[in-house]
């Protein structure tokens, strides 16, 4: 029972709270919270035909089935003021139900009540067995199927051993000897509420910050709100071609992502994310050196039956067709000329930013280099000829001047 009194005008709520706390303590009450399975010493308050009411030492009184406290003659073994050792079997709101043993009648009723009402109970994972886990709830062995322990795929079942979680009773058979439970149902209910709130707050096109939780061969799962995950497919991790998502992101990494899909599917919210769009499209701001007629260097990323793709900068690739690979021989396969990962020099023949296509040529780069070399040779030849012509002219003039001096009479 909780005592309250009217505040006087000269009192404040803090003083009232302190008074209430002292009053509760004077009756042996405290703010201690009980959990199912706790063993306590309780003082009997009253003995009824059906139930015995006891003081649990907390703000809430407890209830014990009177049949559990009878002697051999069917008479109550306890009276008001007696202390008895009891186990907390389950808690429902402000009601605490207890039993003389963790497997008593109240326990069976508590488990049945949990099944009927959907009330969660705390359990401890004891071991891993075929197909699931053995979990102790109120001292009773129960079974949680592997698929019902979590909402995500379980990689290491042994990591759950020794941990305590809330479970829901899903099935009771064989007179209570076989009890099946689920933790997943509780997690999904919580996630459902969180996802509903998320959907109300977010829309497609929003940029969000999240933490990479798991990396799979097909992409990365990113938590973008508590209990809310989205999938960034491997094709959406970067503008470059990604063979292994683990090369791009790692678990625990904080990333920015754009929501590209947000749809409710039966009991779950399907969220698709993209990391590359959040970082901007590299085709929208091509550097000055990437333009038609330029000779540039790039890395061969893929060899195809029709040619080779060359990356000119992150996210920007061009194609060298087989016909543009060599001017000296017929090329039937790209690997006759280049290898993946190799740096090559190419001529940019044509750019189509809208279609995100660049046409490249290796032989064009070679021809351009040869042409440049020939032009340089011509320039050097012309320069040398000009210098020779200039030098020859001065030589003739000098010779004429010298001849004129030779004809001039010498002074004696």
Structure write-up:
With 412 residues, the chain is of the alpha+beta class. It has four domains: 32-111, Nucleic acid-binding proteins (OB fold (Dihydrolipoamide Acetyltransferase, E2P)), CATH 2.40.50; 120-182, OB fold (Dihydrolipoamide Acetyltransferase, E2P); 201-279, OB fold (Dihydrolipoamide Acetyltransferase, E2P), CATH 2.40.50.140; 286-365, OB fold (Dihydrolipoamide Acetyltransferase, E2P), CATH 2.40.50.140. Helix content is 22%, strand content 36%. A hairpin with a 4-residue loop joins strand 19 and strand 20 (357-361). It starts with 12 loop residues before the first helix and ends in a 5-residue tail after the last helix.
* Separation, N- and C-terminal Cα atoms: 149 Å
Output the CATH class name of the largest domain.
Mainly Beta
What amount of the residues lies in strands? Answer: 35-45%
Helical residue percent band: 10-25%
What's the CATH architecture of the largest domain?
Answer: Beta Barrel
CATH fold-level name of the largest domain: OB fold (Dihydrolipoamide Acetyltransferase, E2P)
Query: Structural class, judged by helices and strands?
Result: alpha+beta
Question: What's the Cα radius of gyration?
Answer: 42 Å
Number of domains: 4
How would you state the average pLDDT, rounded? Answer: 81
Q: What's the main sheet like?
A: 5 strands, mixed, barrel
Q: What is the CATH homology-level superfamily of the largest domain?
A: Nucleic acid-binding proteins
> Any idea what the shape is?
rod-shaped
């Amino acid at each position: 029972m909780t005592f309250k009194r009217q505040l006087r005008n000269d009192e404040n709520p803090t003083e009232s709270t302190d008074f209430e706390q002292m009053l509760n303590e004077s009756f042996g009450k405290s703010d201690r919270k009980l959990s199912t399975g706790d063993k306590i010493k309780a003082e009997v308050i009253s003995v009824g035909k059906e139930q015995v009411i006891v003081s649990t030492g907390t703000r809430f009184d407890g209830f014990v089935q009177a049949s559990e406290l009878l002697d051999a003659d069917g008479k109550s073994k306890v009276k008001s003021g007696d202390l008895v050792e009891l186990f907390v079997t389950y808690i429902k709101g402000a009601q605490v139900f207890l039993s003389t043993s963790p497997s008593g009648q109240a326990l069976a009723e508590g488990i049945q009540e949990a099944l009927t009402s959907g009330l969660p109970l705390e359990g401890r994972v004891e071991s891993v067995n075929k197909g699931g886990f053995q979990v102790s709830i109120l001292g009773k062995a129960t079974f949680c199927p592997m698929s019902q322990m979590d909402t995500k795929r379980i990689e290491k079942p042994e990591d759950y051993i020794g941990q305590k979680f809330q479970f829901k009773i899903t099935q009771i058979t064989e007179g209570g000897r076989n009890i099946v439970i689920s933790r997943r149902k509780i997690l999904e209910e919580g996630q459902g509420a969180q996802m509903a709130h998320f959907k109300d707050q977010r829309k497609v096109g929003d940029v969000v910050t999240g933490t990479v939780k798991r990396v799979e061969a097909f992409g990365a799962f990113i938590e973008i709100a508590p209990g809310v995950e989205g999938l960034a497919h491997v094709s959406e991790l970067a503008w470059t071609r990604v063979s292994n998502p683990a090369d791009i992101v790692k678990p625990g990494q904080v990333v920015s992502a754009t929501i590209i899909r947000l749809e409710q599917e039966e009991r779950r919210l399907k969220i698709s994310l993209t990391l590359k769009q959040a970082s901007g499209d590299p085709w929208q701001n091509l550097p000055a050196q990437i333009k038609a007629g330029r000779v540039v260097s790039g890395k061969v990323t893929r060899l195809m039956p029709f040619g080779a793709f060359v990356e000119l900068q992150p996210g920007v690739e061009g194609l060298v067709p087989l016909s543009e690979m060599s001017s000296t021989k017929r090329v039937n396969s790209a690997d006759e000329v280049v290898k993946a990962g190799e740096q090559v020099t190419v001529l940019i023949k044509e750019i189509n930013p809208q279609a995100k296509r660049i046409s490249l040529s290796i032989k064009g780069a070679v021809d351009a280099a040869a042409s440049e070399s020939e032009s340089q040779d011509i320039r050097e030849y012309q320069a040398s000829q000009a210098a020779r012509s200039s030098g020859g002219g001065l030589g003739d003039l000098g010779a004429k001047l010298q001849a004129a001096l030779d004809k001039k009479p010498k002074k004696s």
